[in-house]
């Protein structure tokens, strides 16, 4: 299976070419843009009802997922997320551990990658990103999508900006590797918290990678809210 990510970072789309019949790709519901007519599609609750309900209710993903199967080599499939923005491909191996993805960040994966939900602890109540995270692990390919461009930050590696940890606004966190831990805290005092335009941040420590997205969906919603037409009775 080969892929190319087109139109980065503004309007990312994945163009997948299957090499052999029987190759499969699991895709978030509604992400297909186009496909070869001979590619088959099956819609199901991957992992069974319990796992699907857990991902949907706690991880913010769709209850159903689509599995696309090639019937011959050379067939193509195009995918894109709902929001305009970037797409990142992450090769997964059991040795590297899992990747935690924020709600709505999962786009597609090969069948060797498993998805589960992870309890974020009480700090999740204050992170602005949900109480649970999706954990992707296993062997294969994972694609994550963001609103805005994706930037990788190396944490805990000498000579990098994140050598001694890194602070990220909670609304800009997309994903991070299992070797990284975080705690949510205020930017400064109460004055800074309410008047600076910055709310809560996550301080990442350990060793691994944090992927941040260039735009904040919540900030966009707050920006357009005053321009919405008001309904009157």
Task: Note down, in words, how this protein is organized.
The protein has 233 residues and is mostly beta strands. The chain has a single domain, classed as 4-Layer Sandwich (Double-stranded beta-helix), CATH 3.60.160.10. It contains 3 helices and 19 strands. A 6-stranded antiparallel β-sheet has the order 5-6-3-10-13-8, with no helix packed on it. The chain has a 6-stranded antiparallel β-sheet with strand order 11-12-9-16-19-14. Strands 1-2-7-4 form a 4-stranded antiparallel β-sheet, with no helix packed on it.
Q: Tell me which CATH architecture applies here.
A: 4-Layer Sandwich
At the first level of CATH, what is the class?
A: Alpha Beta
In terms of quaternary structure, the protein is single chain
Number of distinct beta strands: 19
Helix count equals 3
Give the domain tally. 1
Largest sheet properties: 6 strands, antiparallel
Category from helices, strands and their pairing: mainly beta
The geometry reads as globular
The SSE string, one letter per element, is EEEEEHEEEEEEEEEEEEHEEH
CATH topology: Double-stranded beta-helix
End-to-end CA span:
56 Å
Mean pLDDT: 82
Instruction: Describe the strand arrangement of the main beta sheet, using strand numbers.
Output: 5-6-3-10-13-8
Q: Would you identify the regions where 5 or more consecutive residues have pLDDT less than 50? A: 47-61, 121-131
């Amino acid at each position: 299976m080969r892929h190319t990510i087109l139109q980065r970072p503004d309007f990312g789309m994945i163009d997948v070419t299957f090499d052999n019949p029987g190759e499969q790709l699991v895709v978030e519901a509604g992400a297909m843009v186009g496909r070869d007519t001979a590619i088959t599609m099956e819609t199901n609750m991957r992992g069974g009802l319990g796992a699907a309900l857990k991902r949907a209710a706690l991880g913010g993903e769709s209850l159903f997922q689509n599995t696309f199967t090639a019937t011959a080599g050379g067939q193509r499939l195009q995918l894109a997320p709902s929001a305009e923005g970037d797409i990142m491909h992450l090769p997964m191996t059991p040795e590297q551990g899992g990747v935690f993805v924020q709600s709505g960040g999962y786009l597609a994966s090969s069948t060797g990658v498993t998805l589960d939900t992870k309890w974020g602890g009480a700090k999740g109540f204050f992170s602005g990103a949900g109480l649970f995270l999706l954990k992707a692990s296993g062997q294969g390919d994972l694609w994550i999508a963001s609103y805005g461009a994706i930037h990788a930050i190396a944490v805990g590696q000498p000579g990098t900006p994140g050598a001694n940890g890194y602070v990220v606004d909670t609304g800009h966190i997309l994903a991070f590797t299992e070797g990284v831990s975080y705690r949510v805290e205020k930017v400064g005092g109460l004055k800074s918290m309410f008047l600076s335009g910055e709310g809560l941040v996550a301080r990442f420590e350990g060793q691994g990678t944090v992927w941040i997205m260039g735009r904040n969906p919540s900030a966009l919603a707050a920006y357009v809210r005053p321009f919405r037409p008001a309904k009157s009775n």
